[in-house]
Amino acid sequence: MKRRIRKSIKPIIGSIFLSIVLWFMVTTSKEYTTQIKVPLEVSRLAKGKTLLKPISSEVTLEIRGTGQSIIALLYLYESSFKLELPQVTKSAKITLADYLVFLDIPSRLGLEVVEILEPKTIDLLVDDFIVTGKPIQFSGQIDTEPGYIVLDTSYSQDSVQISGPKSIVDTINHISTEPSIYENQKYAFSNRLKLESPVPDLIKIFPNEIDVQFEIQRIIERVVYDIPVRIKNIPKDLLVESIPFSLSLRIKGGEKNVEKLNSDEILAEIDFKLQYKPEQTEYPVIIKTPPEISWLESSPKTFKLTVKRKQ
Span 197-216, mean pLDDT? Predict the structure, then answer.
């Protein structure tokens, strides 16, 4: 019984399959009109020129042809509308219907473009094309463990090359890395980060990735002795000295930087022109340390000045 059912089903399935094939062949051999969307781009302008504003990324067309040709176009081919406009040297408005020669649809399919539906025209805003270098800036956050500090961020190269419209490139001060967050850090580390174009459609970056090194050090304190006190803006007819001649300074910062800091890298000065008053006996000093170093306390805190006229 089962064998008889199997024998009877096979011819039925075969007949249905043939019917579907015949129906498909007959149906798709007829002519149809339909709408399709294809990518739109300007692949070339006049030498040294580029677009200042992106155009529409696709164009909607109404096409006519057999069902078989339309199906083949949709599933077997990658059509595009790539405009080559070497004659365009300044901003202009063009009608796409005048440039159908740049529509890439295989001629053997026998398809006809009935109409360009959207957009019918495009505004080409044209600018000078330039290539230049821009510095890099880390965009992100580094949180250290208590007692540690981020001292420096360095890159595998000082700048990257960017290209695009001059009026946009000239406004860019730096190129930022992708936003990144690092938590509970206590040792120096490096990472490869992507660079973000401020205007992705128009500004290209090379290279688009860069190695970033983060310098992290333990925070320590140290006392630096015998830092000379300098007096500036002394009148030519006077001799001025401080009492005492030097000071000690307790400083704080990253371990390596604090340990190697010398007294001559710290500026301790009194501005005679701004600070001196005959009735005043004690003067504070102005102290400046390297950017990565902070100072906590000086000894002494104030100084006397001896003022004599030159003989």
Answer: 94
